[in-house]
Design brief:
The complex is a heterodimer. Chain A is 62% helix and 0% strand. By secondary structure, chain A is mainly alpha-helical. The radius of gyration of chain A is 19 Å and the shape is globular. Chain B has seven helices and no strands. Chain B is extended, with a radius of gyration of 25 Å.
């Protein structure tokens, strides 16, 4: 289930707003895996579990004011993204940022910081496990802000304006970060199969 | 092909598809911890203290709200868009001056800590300024832009002093 598509039945949502434990648990069970994936793709390291917990605590407190105009998952996604941003902006994290940005060479599976983000996959991984692992490592090797921009734009469907707004900046900021992130992730993609290359119209003179 | 070359449309599509196809990650079951956080009762004296403080706070807010309402019209009119535009221009000018200062690889520990603290406060202000509700309310936006200018000004002084420090 994609986080942005998640919603609760009306009665369950009403019970969750009223603080009923069973309904809040249904909310947690439905959202925790996709929200954890989102957080884990943005935040490298063990902080993801705490951020997920804090995002749910925030959501449970704010649930009575949820107006239901958008699906619950979209509302919760905004809370989770805000938690990630707060984490990345914390003085401690920012002072450590250089540690994560310099050592690209550590991302070769030798236990360096990039390996933390690989995580444990749920069942249903795509057909090319090599490409999946390379891509996860390459993603973990990006700077935190670039990683956040790439994930929010390419996977969560945020617009450049929305991402720029998160950083009190413009859409151009988001576009330049995305282009930089894409260029760095290119190496993780496997070459196209030969048959597809032959039929590609761009390969003909 | 260098790192700076942009991706072709086909590469971009492939990359997005590959990112979207990455598997979900499974968190450890955190429901127990979450429900304990929700239900953790505070000791009775703490609850009584919080209750008293809440009532006192609510009363104070009521009085303050009544006082502020009298001055609200005047405050909103004074916080005009022109003032905000002036502060934004000043903020941009200060940022340009900051960018023009030479970067020093070695700085005193105290200066570095002050710089980081100021940058963090600027980030916090930026975060609040990105809030749509704040942007709609001129009074809040003006106060935040004012604070941003003051922080940038202080940061400029710290950086300038650090740049001029040739003994380090």
């Amino acid at each position: 289930v994609k986080l942005k598509e998640f919603d609760l039945p009306t009665t369950t949502l009403a019970a969750a707003r009223a603080g009923e434990s069973w309904a809040l648990e249904a909310f947690y069970r439905g959202c925790s895996a996709p929200a954890y994936t989102l957080i884990r793709r943005i935040v490298v390291g063990a902080a993801a579990e705490d951020l997920l917990h804090e995002a749910f605590v925030d959501a449970f407190r704010a649930l009575p004011s949820f107006d239901g105009r958008a699906p619950l998952g979209i509302w919760f996604r905004a809370i989770a993204v805000r938690r990630c941003l707060m984490h990345l902006r914390s003085p401690w994290q920012r002072s450590r940022a250089w540690l994560r940005e310099v050592p690209q060479r550590w991302n070769d599976g030798d236990g360096g910081p990039g390996d933390e983000a690989i995580g444990h996959d749920a069942p249903g991984a795509p057909s090319d496990p090599g490409e999946t692992i390379d891509l996860q490592r390459a993603l973990a090797g990006l700077t935190p802000v670039t990683r956040l921009v790439v994930w929010l734009h390419d996977v969560e469907g945020y617009s450049h304006d929305e991402i720029g707004g998160l950083f009190a900046s413009t859409a151009s900021f988001s576009k330049s970060r995305l282009a930089r992130g894409h260029a760095r992730l290119r190496a993780a993609l496997r070459p196209e199969p030969a048959a597809e290359v032959a039929t590609c119209p761009c390969s003909t003179p | 092909m260098s790192l700076l070359d942009p991706l072709s449309p086909a590469e971009t599509r492939r990359l997005r598809a590959a990112l979207g196809a990455l598997p979900d990650l499974q968190p450890p079951d955190g429901w127990r911890r979450l429900s304990m956080t929700r239900h953790s009762p505070l000791p009775r004296p703490a609850r009584a203290l919080i209750g008293t403080m809440a009532i006192a706070g609510a009363l104070a807010l009521l009085v303050l709200g009544a006082l502020l309402r009298q001055f609200d019209g005047a405050m909103v009119s004074s916080a005009s868009a022109a003032e905000i535009a002036t502060l934004q221009a000043r903020s941009a000018a200060l940022e340009s001056r900051l960018a023009a200062l030479p970067e020093r690889r070695l700085v005193r520990g105290g200066s570095a800590l002050t710089t980081v603290a100021l940058q963090d406060r600027i980030l916090l202000v930026d975060e609040q300024l990105s809030d749509q509700d704040v942007r709609r309310r001129d009074v809040h936006a003006r106060a935040l832009w004012q604070e941003r200018c003051e922080l940038l000004n202080t940061l400029l002084k710290v950086r300038a002093a650090s740049a001029a420090d040739i003994t380090f």
